[in-house]
Amino acid sequence: QVQLVESGGGLVQPGGSLRLSCAASGIIFSAANMGWYRQAPGKQRELVASITRGGSTNYADSVKGRFTISRDNAKNTVYLQMNSLKPEETAVYYCNARTYGTYGYNYWGQGTQVTVSS
After folding, report:
1. 9 φ/ψ angles, rounded to the nearest 5 degrees
2. What is the pLDDT of residue 79?
3. Digit-coded pLDDT (tens) for 75-117
4. Taking the CB of residue 11, how many other CB atoms lie within 10 A of it?
5. Average pLDDT in the 1-18 region?
6. Residues in Cβ contact with 73 at an 8 Å cutoff, skipping those fewer than 6 apart
7. Distance between CA 84 and CA 63 in Å, rounded?
8. Which residues are CB-neighbours of 38 under 8 A, at least 6 positions away?
9. pLDDT for 26-52, tens place per residue?
10. Sign of the C-alpha dihedral computed for residues 73, 77, 83 and 86 taken in this order
């Protein structure tokens, strides 16, 4: 059974920081491409950051220089360090794990709420 369990969300003031974690089980974590997405009320889910199984990273333009995605294969965990948070970044943040090819998969976590407000 595959599980992606996010943690670290919460309420933070504008300009503050949070670190999200996503612990994976039921997959070969080191072989998975991992990503963080977010969905604000009334909006589509969007990619925030991703990291390949080889460690290459990709970021949405809006978060470059402020967010950092990383992974610890020994702990089966991917992280998202978020600095200088803005109110418009209030959303549910989702962890994603996927591989490609004939036996590829695409799994989602349950999401963690991030609220940026004073």
Report:
1. -70, 175
2. 98
3. 999 999 999 999 999 999 999 999 988 888 899 999 999 999 9
4. 12
5. 97
6. 29, 30
7. 9
8. 45, 46, 48, 89, 91, 92, 93, 94, 114
9. 999 999 999 999 999 999 999 999 999
10. positive
